[in-house]
Amino acid sequence: MPTNNGPGRLPIFVAPPNSNSQRSPGYVPGRVAPVRSPPPAKAPPPPPIKPHGPPLERQATFSVTEANQHRERAKSLQQRKNTFICCGVSIGAFFLTLILVLSLTSGDVLDENCPDHNPSLSSWNPGHQPEKAVVVRRGHLFRLDASATFHSLTIQSGGRVVFADNKDGTKNITLRTHHILIEAGGALHIGAPKCRYRSRATIALIGRSDDNTVPEVPGLGRKFIGVMSGGTLELHGTESVSWTLLTRSIPASGLTTGGYAFQKNFSRGINLRVVDQDTAALLLCERYDTYDSRNDSRRLSQLLRSLPDGRIVTLAVGDSAVKSLLDDTKKAIEDRLGSSFVYDLKYRKAWALVSVVGGGNASCSEDVREHENHDTGGRALARGNFTTVDGVGFSVTAYSEWKNGVAISGFQVDAVDQVVLNLQDEVQPSWKPGHQIVVASTDYSMHQAEEFTLLPCQQCTSRQVKIQGERKPQYNHVGEILDGVDMRAEVALLSRNILIYGEMENSCYGNNKCQFYNHDTFGGHIKIFGNFSSVHLSHVELKNMGQQAENGHYPLHFHICGDVDQKGGYWEPTYVDGLSIHHSFSRCLSIHATNGLLVKNTVGYDTLGHCFFLEDGIEQRNTLYHNLGLLTRPGTLLPTDRNDSLCTSIKDKVYQGYTPSPSTECKAVSTFWIANPNNNLISNAAAGSQDAGIWFVFHSSSTGDSHGLVPETKAELTPLGIFYNNRVHSNFKAGLFIDKGVKTTNASAADPREYLCLDNSARFRPHQNANPSLPRVAAVIDTLISFKNNDLGAWIRGGDIVIENSGFADNGVGLSFASDGSYPKDEGSSQEVTQSLFVGESQNRGTNGGQNKYWGPGGADAKMRTLPRNRTFPIRGFQIYDGPVSLTESTFRRYIPTPERYTSAVGLRAFFGRPGQWFEENDLDGDKNSIFHDVDGSVTGYIDTYVGRADNYLIQHPGCVNMSQWSGVICSGRYSQVYLQTQGAPSLSLSINRDEYPYAPLVLRGINSQGAPSQQYQPILMMSKSYTLHWSGPAPREIVLSLINFDKDDWVLVGLCYPSDTTFQIMADIYDRQSNTFDDITDYGTVSSLAELEKRPMERKYFFDQTAGLVWLYLRARHGREGHSYCTFKGCERVKVTATTSSKQTCNCTSKAYPKYSKTPSAVVPMPPLNTEPCKGCGAKQLVFSSEPWTSYLQTQIKSLSSKEEQRGDTSSFITVSIPVSYTVQKQVQTYISLSY
């Protein structure tokens, strides 16, 4: 991954004290350094020395004594004895090896990749010893063959425990213990990357937080798996698709038509419903009073004979139906519906029928109940089960009865408790019956996520599963690309064949935050310490993990591990792959002072506090790839985890009873909490959090356990890693949030806020090598899909930042950019959106319920739908908060106002806002100064024009076009800002008059709080015009005027109001913000008249008109700018006015200045003509913004005629497919269908 290596200030991790941990043959160790290198292989013995020269001739012996013969016989006997011993040893070794092989499951073949196949392992069946603290030491190489219970398990000094497996995966091993501690040289293996565990392995972590008979382990506490320095943990379950996307929507109730239910008392006669056999839609609803009307009986007969074969018909008697029921009608019911009971109906006899037209008696379900004493003694109930063309099973039910003198009849069309899901990936056969899955919300509320159990499904394809839940789907889950934005719900597998879970109590107890939660929050946890030997986890389920009352006890916690990839000496970089972490009590996965970790295909579901959590602000080079987090709830550990009530209730770490402010210090719980920008986020999904989906936060120094380790992180200056193809939806506050820091000091009298609460001081401004003197590096947000976020699709502050190829839909506000800050803090940065799509209200209307609070009309069809914030909230696409920002080649659609609210594709508060609930008084300085540049005329129809607020005459000329529906004007010209910073005049308002519109001043209050010792005003001015500036009190003794966004030779002429006895010192300089130095310091001289000043505009001169009380001077840019910088390449050009006066009078010179200096309004740049030609090249090139950006789409339009259109004389129906010129058959292509009907 092309990310930088960071400052390199992390501690050096030493080698584990014992690096000779045992490993199975063929296992590749993950750590190669600083573990000591293995000794060289023992050299083979040297070959025998070959004698030189010819061999010696053998001497013949003819005479052998008897003693010699005896010795020879003894020697020969010993040789034969030795031979027998060797053979015996060899045979013994052979049988021993055979026994070891046979001890494996019958039919298994030794595989060196399988840790449980290691011949050096001993079979281990320790049984259940709940009081025994088991220690596995050097020489203890155990294969656990059966379930066991211990008080605790410690593996150390070369000891090893391997879970046994077999070929058919029928092992079922459960290990119950208070904790497992893996110390230096110890190893725990369940499967391996090349030999996946096939059976069922379970580790149950047991115990209560208040059980003092179980001592706490330092740094770990209770109920844990701990991997210390030099330890090895290898867990590898059966591979499966971790999560995927729906490819067909799941409607609420399981039926696209929504189902049907009806019940009524005394609905006399035969009640009839006709149901479509293909869709389960209700086609006809009628009542025929066959008790009192022969004509109704005839109508029923005619209907039955006219219905096409295959239609589903259901009948139910209400009260009585036989008095006028004609024989011809009975015959039609018998012939068309296969009824056996219709001829036997009697007065007030209950009868219900469900049948298929033309299906005969075999398709007919019917039931009757006799009436006696105003009661039928039960319900006549008929039911038929059917399947839609989409494979969804549904039932049609009819019932009829008398109960306590009341005639009751009714119908129900409902999905059966089995619904087939169509999925993007091939999940079969790894997703098995009995497995648990979760389907994410595709609405504003994350609480519409639903869990289901998989059922057997022989007819399902490899991309289908059948579900059964405690109830049928309660909410709509979108499985389509709607209006060009991919809104398909994520579907995650929660079950794995390796399960680690915490055994829980039935309710909360002790000090487990029971004042906030009614359930036990003391789960298990896994903690990995630095300098471990090898840790890899794949396809493991972690359930009921994490401890809400204990900091640092998370389901999976990499704790101050430093570099865990090849940079840190690991041959096999550390990774987490395919984990399912659900129903967690404190986070999902914590990356704490750890770099280079790969986390992929991992699901975090239903957790308290930040889910995927980068902790101390110094974590870098980590890659989060294709992970899913959903249902992220508030927690208690950090201020940023807390919601309103938790924020104000937890005050043990604030200063002397201070009450925190939830909106500014808390309310930031996020599915992905990224505390350093130098990390990679690729193809992740944040599918529901109480606050944010993905939040980039900036630590000014290392925090927590890393406090002081890196005194200055420079996180704000660090370039962003890869951000590509991420999804954010169903979050309450924001989908993506890039802004703010955390407080890095403890609470004190000076600042009573809690340590690590949100802090508004950080601004993201990435530069090369995190060095502000080097060029900026644009942070690129590529292919972001953001929908159904209640407040903001994305909020991003800082620069340079580029968002491209992204889709936003159904957000309260699609995207809002905020600048790095105000000058002089911000030297000028750019924010750009390009090639993106914004949809106001899509065809995803949502489901009323599931903690969605607001339901009302909206969208192009004005139908009822879920709404963000509330019914009056003004929906906006791209909100211009401040600038500079650039919006190019993007498409906006379906922004339609309603009688209750405004809607805007491109929104500045000024253009449609009015005083009221959402815009306060709409009179802030930023409201009044709002302006944007329509470069190509694609918004206004006028090329190279500006749109501003209608009541701001500083920017207007007579040729401007008034747009009353925007409360705005379209004007031509050149515009820049002057920042006026004052000293010594608190709480002043500034009134600015343009000489051409002297009686329509713009009044600014300043951006700093009232009463501040200094104030800053930021008016936007039309260039090449003159203005006068007036005050609501005595004039400031010092004013600094900074030229912002002035291009070279841009100018304005300004007259500042002062008392007539004022003396001035006026000087110009260039301020270098980075070095805090001043250059080109020049004093202004005086001239005797304004006319003389106007003749010498290039000189630094001023004229003081004592009669009018105006000091006149030019503000002219003498140098050019680079890019989007506020100031010139040499620095910020400024003019400083220091005034000395004894007067305390209010300095408003308007009455003296005008009409003396009034001028006739004119345009510096004439208005261009209205462009009536269609915009060429406007909008995004892409038709579809999906989470599969590698897939190409063809736009297909289908128009089919409805009966109403035919009645109107419309005869047009068509199918069109638009094929781009660049299309090639080699591309993968899907069809994007736009329907007109």
From TrEMBL:
Residues 122-248 form the G8 domain. The chain crosses the membrane at residues 83-104. Pfam families: CEMIP_beta-hel, CEMIP_X, G8, ILEI. Residues 1-57, 838-859 are annotated as: Disordered. Keywords: Glycoprotein, Glycosidase, Hydrolase, Lectin, Membrane, Repeat, Transmembrane, Transmembrane helix. The keyword Kinase does not apply. Residues 36-54 have a biased composition (Pro residues). GO terms for molecular function: carbohydrate binding; hyalurononglucosaminidase activity. InterPro entries: CEMIP/CEMIP2, CEMIP_beta-hel_dom, CEMIP_X, G8_domain, ILEI/PANDER_dom, TMEM2_PANDER-like. GO terms for biological process: atrioventricular valve formation; cardiac muscle tissue morphogenesis; cell migration involved in heart formation; cell migration to the midline involved in heart development; endocardial cushion development; heart looping; hyaluronan catabolic process; muscle attachment. Its main location: other. It is found in: Cell envelope; Membrane. GO terms for cellular component: plasma membrane. Belongs to the CEMIP family. This is Cell migration inducing hyaluronidase 2. It comes from Labrus bergylta.
